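Problem: given the chain below (775 residues), write out its structure.
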Amino acid sequence: MSCVRRQTKLSKSEELLHHASNQKMIQTNAKLLGMEGDPDLQFLLQGGDLLKVLSPSWKKTRFLKLQEDCKTIWRESKKTFKSNQTFPVDSIAAVRLGRQSEGLKKNTEEQVECRCFTIVFKGRRKNLDLIASSEEEAGSWVRGLQKLISSLNNLSADQAKDHWIFSCLRKADKNKDSKLSQQEMKNFLQLLNIGLDDDYAEMLFKKCDKSGSGYLAGAEIEHFYDLLTHREEIDVIYGEYAKTTGFMNAGNLLEFLTKEQREKLTLADAQKIIEKYEPDEQAKGKSLLSKDGFLMYLHDPEAMVFNLDHKQVYQDMQQPLNHYFINSSHNTYLMEDQLKGPSSTEAYVRALLKGCRCVELDCWDGSDNEPVIYHGYTLTSKILFKDAIKAIKEYAFKKSDYPVILSLENHCSVEQQSVMAQHMSSILGSALVTTPLGDGMPTNFPSPEELKGKFLIKGKRLNKLEASFAEAAEEADNTDVTEEEESSNEADDEPAEKTSKKKLKLAKDLSDMVIYCKSVHFNSFEDARKNQSFYEMSSFKEGKAVKLAEESANAYIRHNVEKLSRIYPAGSRTDSSNYNPVPLWNAGCQIVALNFQTACTELDINQGRFLVNGMGGYVLKPAYMRDAATEFDPITLTRGDWLQHKTLHVMVISGQQLPKVNKKKSSIVDPLVKVQIYGVPADVSEKETSAVANNGFNPSWNENFQFDVYVPELALVRFLIEDHDSTSDNEFIGQYTLPFNSLKMGYRHVPLLNRNGDKLPSAGLFVHVMVLDAK
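Solution.
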């Protein structure tokens, strides 16, 4: 059977490595992507002229073409002095047909609608607005790119690895003779992020150069590939359980799954795994699992470190809204900094597609009686309020069905407030909650389940929900202050009566839309308990919130059992940096708003918190944070149900295909791994491996760590890989964050995300995890 497997692998190698023609390379990559013979892929490979649009008068021709590797777009300028550029397909977040982007709406006429499309990039890179020569061509570009992105995203770990390795081989084979000289082999290793000294590289080359010809070809490249991709740690694990003529039978596999992986499976389940993952038909026919099949299983999402049961909605969604942590954004409209960067409807789209369920709109009077959104008193650009509402309506429920909260910071005149109300009513329609659910005056929040597909307005009201509404616009309660006014008060503990109390006139039609999230000023927990209704909520600047969380944690938690709290970054964070959300979650705060446009550790943690429960943006708080009489205090940790002391054992074994930090060919990373615990103060911890010199392709650590975790329901685990630098700060390579209770035990692969939170296609960590009850 091993001969059959080897022959299959050799034929694959022959196909991928020994045909120099570009056409053969295209066929190979198309087949790997499952797009062989696809007319839209052929269209992309042929390429064509497009108009790039920057302004009504700036429209320049650009030639775009998919390169033979099927993962890079080549872009040519008609200017002879301007260098041609490329960008990877996996840097594209979305491709949208029509005049959907702000740029195309503003800079093109309606008659070109069917010829327009936009390439939206991940991170902060600006959109690419384009016009094709015909509706058919625009459709081909959009369909082709969407299919290609989907195919690349759906590659298995082995397919992604092969696609990457063979692309690097092509690049290294400079003279395209399907052979590798010793220098080309070194170039190839550098592309793979492996740095070898000359003596070792020469030894490796000679070991593979069986013919003594001075270059590698055919089966010699195959042998070289085997040496590169061989994983000794898998050999050891597999060898311990492969007790049936060198293979695993269903019984052997079940022993591994129950003993090592702590899975509760049956013999029939083990048999299904063999049928699904074993690539060799002869082995599969005898119900045996080869080492290749075993590794394919370990790479599958169902066998990775994140418990797939938690990927779906698995929590009780019938609890009151304030019993959930809610994925929330601050100044959502900003793409960059807080002072002079652009505002864009695209920022709302990106936040909503990341699972955000509370977005912010800073509203000001605009020209032609049209309210605008921007960061007041700064140089940030402006967008129309109605355009933001349209974008929110279109993308609100693509990622999650659960309710979206529109947090209004209202600086508009009464007249333009009425325009705001009209826009929200006409655009959002029946999805906008404008009256309490059910009959009569509510006494508690509805649940996320009851509010599916609905929008809630957070803002000021003229009076209590219980009271009859005024006939005309009146002055709001003088104790109400806007966030801008409150954040100008740098002394967080300054008495409330010294805070600026600018009176704000409210339009009745806008006021009446505020049902479950009425904004009020916070005076004290006692005052809130005695005088505020359940739907009256306060916003806290981070400094004030952190102080309350440190000094009055239990009171804060009890407050949040009854009401909603929103936290927002300090005004001093003009660079759109973020604060640590964990201490505020520990205090039961639901709406901990972060700057979604800034890639940082804090946003990684936020993404990890909301990774679970269908990534729907709502995560149920632990029972002890939903009890009005709770004694839980994350600082003092007195005895209670929250204390579930666990011991976490993590062995960091190896890494696979880590990306370069510095794009220079000769730059090789020196990776180290940090395992971090976030949670209550007693649980916060970090341990790190040593650095592996000059190897980002297959570094090996085999280092063990142990952690005590006292409140697992609030804990998060973060795997961080950095490029070690002895003279300056380490550089980020990749990370993955998940809730402690979503860890799976045993030998697990850990996927890695880049700075923007997007998956690194073939990179990963291999670890062993064990969680035990502490003695």
